[in-house]
Amino acid sequence: MPGRTRTQRCYGPYHRRVALQLYDTATRSVRPFVPLRPGVVSLYNCGATVQWHPHIGHLRGAGIVYDVLRRWLEFSGYEVLHVRNVTDIDDKILAKAAEAGRPWWEWATTHERSFSDAYDILGCLRPSIEPRATGHIPQIIEMITGLIDKGHAYDIEGDVYFSVRTQPDYGFLSGQRIDEMVQGEAFGLSKKDPADFTMWKAAKVGEPSWPSPWGPGRPGWHIECSAMARTYLGDQFDIHGGGLDLIFPHHENEAAQSHGIGEDFARYWMHSHWVTMGGEKMSKSLGNILSVPAITEHTRPVALRYYLISVHYRSSIEYSREALDDAAKAFDRIEAFLTRVADRVGSVEIGSLPDGFRKAMDDDLAVPRALAIIHEQVRAGNAALTAGDSANAARLASSVRGMVAVLGLDPLVAPWASAGDDRRLKSATGTLILALLEERTRARAARDFATADAIRDRLAGAGFAIEDTKDGPVWSVAAER
Fold first, then answer.
1. 193-226, pLDDT tens digit by residue?
2. Which of 375, 391, 403, 456 is deepest in the core (most CB within 10 A)?
């Protein structure tokens, strides 16, 4: 399965410390990235609240974007310590489990596995560690106790709240003023200020609970991530990432707790935009969700990955089947070129990257520009093949393969080359078809359309569909009727 091993470090000769620039939400600017420790990057990104099966919006914000970042960092010579948490105790989880009549822990575990499967299907590398909130109750209690001791928190009748007005920099991340903030939780009788938020919730009948100095209860959402980030990455780390919707209240509150306890916490804050449908953020509550299993019934997982990275991570993606199909065709053109060259010369090695690709990736992960460079080289490579220049085609293919490998899109290796789509594997059939297509291309260039049409009809009669694209002809097994 994809994602079980660390990123390969042998993409080519490019092993430098990157001149990477990243947009930092806290400063609202693109900043040069300099890690805290030379050669090592510490990355925490908020993972799933496992209340339901994941949709592609979840997977972009919690998985794909930070997978591309990690791959680029590792390719560039860094060791990446990657923590992606699992929120496995939460009001929403308890409500959904109760509605379904299932134990909360079984409900959470089922949907955690669903997320893990989806990450794997889309080729995401496994994080260095994937901690669960329920496995860190002692660390959470220790942190809450410290905040009470420092005067940043108070407990009333078993509930513990963070007092936001005691933290001078509260609001630095979201840019909001305290009096305008709505925490999204009830303003109970025990809460001193509507802007305060819950760190520990007193036990309710029928809900899970753990012992604490304030009585039995369970942690709030925000303290879970603060404690887990501190446990694995220390008092200060490089990058904290997540979806745009987490800036407030989740990330603002994480930072407040961690700053309040005396930590510097995250040095860079990254946030990815939403996947939308009809202009609305994809969410279960709106009923506009698309799961990975549903989409991969008609679209290859690698094409879905291509689609989700083809728009800059700070821009929203408006989902449509047409846009997804266009992305699948674009990936098919890359795959067809690499396969044609492999069939012609025997193999395609992973080669060095063009300067333009490196500059695009260093410029706040400008993947759309990087993909444009890939397609430029695919077009040039197909032209070289048509001209019979196998050496130049092989050189360009080697560069293309290096670029797609960095993006987790290499069609010549597992999982993509062994995912049940064998129509372009090197074989006698593939070699014959490619020879016919090249003959057809020469006929079209000579304006011998009768011969070109005859070749197309022969292939169609044998069950193969031909699509003429700007990158050259692409063949596939025709759909059954």
1. 999 999 999 999 999 999 999 999 999 999 999 9
2. 403
DSSP-assigned letter for residue 37: B
* Cβ pair 157, 202 in contact under 8 A: yes
Q: What is the pLDDT of residue 48?
A: 94
CB-based contacts of 424: which residues, under 8 Å, 6+ apart? Answer: 335, 336, 339, 411, 430
What's the confidence (pLDDT) of residue 481? 43
Angstrom distance (rounded) from CA 481 to CA 479 = 6
3-state secondary structure of 403: helix
Same domain, 418 and 278: no
Residue 182 is predicted with a pLDDT of: 84
**How is 252-319 classified by DSSP, letter by letter?**
HHHHHHHHHHT--EEEEEEEE--EEETTEE--GGGT---BHHHHTTTS-HHHHHHHHHSS-TTS-EE-
- In 345-386, at which residue ranges do the beta strands (DSSP E only) sit? none
What are the backbone angles phi and psi of residue 35, rounded to the nearest 5°? -70, 155
How far apart, in Å, are the Cα atoms of 213 and each of 45, 140, 156, 158, 186? Answer: 30, 12, 12, 9, 23
Give the domain extent around 326. Answer: 298-477
Residue 381 belongs to what H/E stretch? helix 367-386
Chain centroid offset of residue 218 CA = 30
Q: Give the per-residue pLDDT at 425.
A: 43
* pLDDT the model gives residue 423: 41
Report which DSSP code applies to 337. H
Domain of 187: which CATH number? 3.40.50.620
Secondary structure element (H or E) that encloses residue 472, with its range? strand 472-477
What is the number of domains present in the chain?
A: 2
Check: CB of residue 62 under 8 Å from CB of residue 127: no
User: Quick check: 221 and 250 in contact, CB under 8 A?
Assistant: yes
Phi, psi dihedrals of residue 378, rounded to the nearest 5°: -60, -45
46 shares a domain with 29: yes
Residues in the chain predicted with pLDDT less than 50, given as ranges, are 1-16, 288, 419-428, 480-481
Instruction: Note whether residue 9 is domain-resident.
Output: no
Residue 288 sits in the same domain as residue 307: no
CA gap 238, 140 in Å, rounded: 22
User: Helices marked H in 76-183 — which ranges?
Assistant: 91-100, 104-121, 137-149
Element (DSSP H or E) covering residue 74: helix 65-75
Would you say residue 4 lies in a domain? no
Structure tokens that stand for 25 in this block? 């939400």
Tell me, yes or no, whether 118 and 44 share the same domain.
yes
Specify if 14 maps to a domain.
Answer: no
- The CA–CA distances, whole Å, from 122 to 48, 63, 214 equal 16, 9, 43
Three-point CA angle 126, 130, 132, nearest 5°: 155
